[in-house]
């Protein structure tokens, strides 16, 4: 619960959102770590991790319950496995007000930093080559979004221009 509580504390401290309007939630879908399953102090759900259809059905049920209880909610996805992060974001983006902090939040902060660094170094972000080390949710989110910070300066994907400027060391994005 440390991460959700910490994020909500930032909303309160930096955004002025009353803690009464926030709710930290952790979805426990099991673990495949046998050492944890054997540990008598393990507080998680003592079952193998659910995957595929069962996983998405579980998340769907959660989303529907949240929508029913709080129809105007803002839902922040945090620390979902990369293989699930983008599919979940795409699945719910038109259904519930939501964002994935690893993909979109980190990308937004990184884009701002890259723009500022480009200006400080002299030149435009579109002229820079950018290398990402790793292909987790954050790195892939940055790679997908960093060349589109301003619609007026957008480089069209598929034009070859954006792809020639973005390099990922782990090509899994």
UniProtKB/TrEMBL annotation:
Gene3D superfamilies found in the cross-reference section: Malic enzyme, N-terminal domain, NAD(P)-binding Rossmann-like Domain
Report the EC code(s) recorded for this entry: 1.1.1.38
Needed cofactors = Mn(2+)
Name a GO CC annotation attached to this entry: cytosol
Q: Name one Pfam family in it.
A: malic
Read off the SUPFAM superfamilies from this record: Aminoacid dehydrogenase-like, N-terminal domain, NAD(P)-binding Rossmann-fold domains
Gene Ontology molecular function terms on file: malic enzyme activity; metal ion binding; NAD binding; oxidoreductase activity, acting on the CH-OH group of donors, NAD or NADP as acceptor
Q: The Malic enzyme N-terminal domain covers which part of the protein?
A: 1-93
Reading the lineage from the top rank, the first entry is Bacteria
List, in alphabetical order, the GO biological process terms annotated in this UniProt record: malate metabolic process
The UniProt keywords, alphabetically, are: Metal-binding, NAD, Oxidoreductase
Give the family from UniProt. Belongs to the malic enzymes family.
Q: What is this protein called?
A: Malate dehydrogenase
Gene designation: maeA_1
């Amino acid at each position: 619960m440390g991460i959700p509580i910490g994020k909500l504390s930032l909303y309160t401290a930096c955004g002025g959102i009353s803690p009464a309007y926030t709710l930290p939630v952790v979805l426990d879908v099991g673990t495949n770590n046998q050492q944890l399953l054997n540990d008598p102090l393990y507080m998680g759900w003592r079952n193998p991790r659910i995957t595929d259809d069962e996983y998405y059905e579980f998340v769907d049920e959660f989303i529907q319950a949240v929508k029913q209880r709080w129809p105007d909610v803002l839902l922040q996805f945090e620390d979902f496995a990369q293989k699930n992060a983008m599919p979940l974001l795409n699945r719910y983006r038109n259904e519930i007000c939501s964002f994935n902090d690893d993909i979109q939040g980190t990308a937004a902060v990184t884009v701002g930093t890259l723009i500022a660094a480009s200006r400080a170094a002299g030149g435009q972000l579109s002229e820079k080559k950018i290398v990402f080390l790793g292909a987790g949710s954050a790195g892939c989110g940055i790679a997908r979004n960093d060349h589109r910070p301003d619609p007026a300066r957008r480089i069209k994907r598929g034009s070859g221009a954006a792809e020639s400027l973005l390099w990922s060391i782990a090509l899994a994005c």
